[in-house]
Sequence to fold (661 residues):
Amino acid sequence: MAKDDNLPLFETKLAKGRILFQFYSLLIFVGTCFIFAYRLSHIPAIGEPGRWAWIGLFCSELWFCFYWFVTTVVRWNPIYRNTFKDRLSHRYEKALPGIDIFVCTADPVIEPPVMVINTILSVMAYDYPPEKLNVYLSDDGASEFTFYAMLEASRFSKIWLPFCKKFKVEPRSPEAYFRIAVEPLGEPVMAKEWSTVKMLYEDMKNRIESITKLGRISKETSKEHKGFDEWILVASPRDHQTILQILIDGRDSEAVDIQGQPLPTLVYLAREKRPQYHHHFKAGAMNAMMEMPGYDGNGGSCYIGTGCFHRRETLSGQKYSKNFKADWKRLSNRSVKESTSVLEEKCKVLASSSYEENSQWGKEMGLKYDCAVEDLLTGLSIQCRGWKSIYFNPERKGFLGVAPITLLQSLVQHKRWSEGDFHIFASKNCPFVLGYKKIPLKLQLSYCIYLLWAPNCLTTLYYVIVPSLCLLRGISLFPHISSSWVLAFVFVIFLHRTYSLGEFIWFGGTFKGWWNDQRMWLYKRTTSYFFGLLDYILKRLGFSKSAFVITTKVANDDVSQRYEQEVMEFGTSSPMFTILATLALLNAFCFLGALKRVIANVEILFWERFALQILLCGLLVLINLPVYQGLFFRKDVASLPTSVTFKSTMFALLACAITLY
Fold:
């Protein structure tokens, strides 16, 4: 028995295939050196056409090489961890720590109450001692419809939790489960129970959606719980008192499910908001470790949004000490004597607008404030205080999220992320400053993958625009097809993309999925990151202020159907779409102009001189096929508006005209 107590709870393994990746990286490095040698030895003379375009292209390639180096550092020595749950159960089953799970929402329209409570019910159903599990919903929308949905969920949980255990439900979100599960027809008793629970869920869902659609809570419904009285004092979602309601009190001996088993604590919270106080919104999940083992090998995973657990001490501003030992017994203590109503009133002060004034909250304690990506900054600060993070990605996913399914929403989300990331890099919180002598240099470098998203737009835009315009003008920027220097470019491009495709397929992807990934890579760099960088500069100059933007989590049936069919969603006018369309048309015009010269044999050596530029331009045309379809061929509501077609065509033609004349 004592011997078992000394066995490790997890093991660490080096990733398979890392030697292959390291060899591949070495080959890429050698090929890149030859490219740089070509660039330096063939710079056009002063006064020769294309000299500055050549130098600009060389600078872009230097940046690409640096960014490739950063990503290579991250991926150089990835590690994976395997846990031994049986040893954990044997050693700590009666002494497991209490766990607080926070679910955040901010808008009942963009984040519907039904979706929110599905998240709540899934975490309540965790395979963990319920008396040590506390689930909180932080509603920055202060929506009575979300509160009503929570009340319904608290009742349904009494049925859902034992049902999950009995039927070994996976996933444990009712909506997700009943969408894919098949009724167990082989056993009539189980089939009846299964159908009953499904019917109860559908009834609850219909009630919530009906009240949300109606837009008000009826008098009869408001009498079901005292919490509805709080909304009598709510002036607006941005001007209201603290609303805190303990819907299930885990200390209560009567808080049990239909089988008499204890239920987790369930709390609804809407933090106080007043016009005279700046409110720090938090939408989405607050716990995220990056789905990347290379970070773990470099000193610790970074914290990016959803899917991780924190020790309470890490969020309280405490520095790590070798003598630290968590007192799980104290943290799990529920021997609070106050009644539920007294405890509610006593705790409201913690969520008041003035509670954080002149305190370390948002600075040294809790999540960091005044940053669009507070999760990344919070994780970096925790690591700089000596705490270590580890990456663990079990086969059975502990967390499942919802991502935008329309192009514009995805681009807007990445714009916000890239702006916030670069804000960190250009501030005193830069990993090279904040993390100096506190975290390993390779971990400092690893953060740059995200923090340098925004400036990536400049070199990408240059590579998308300038070679194509020079092709139209007849200025060569790459070696002739008959030159031996062309081998370096072909070798690096072919090897880099082939390895990328092979890796994508190795991890369960498809060629079509990889191709779409390349397309989104380009679209994000030329729009999201560009506007992210532009917004950062404007804010630094005082021309704009930070705005809280929530990414929509729902879509109508038509949008969902197009998403399932992998049809790109446009359907609205946006500066991002104008840029995408302009770049697509610019490359199409340049490509057609080059083809005309090749076919007409105006210049016999044209193909030999411009082969790589023609191929690059043609590749950009292939990537932009969905944009051309949206501009000219699609007639559905998801096509690009006429205004975008007109503006992008004029901009592209103007650029071509200026280049030629």
Q: What stands out?
A: Residues 511-540 form the longest helix (30 residues). Residues 283-290 have pLDDT under 50 and may be disordered. The CA atoms of residues 192 and 369 lie 51 Å apart.
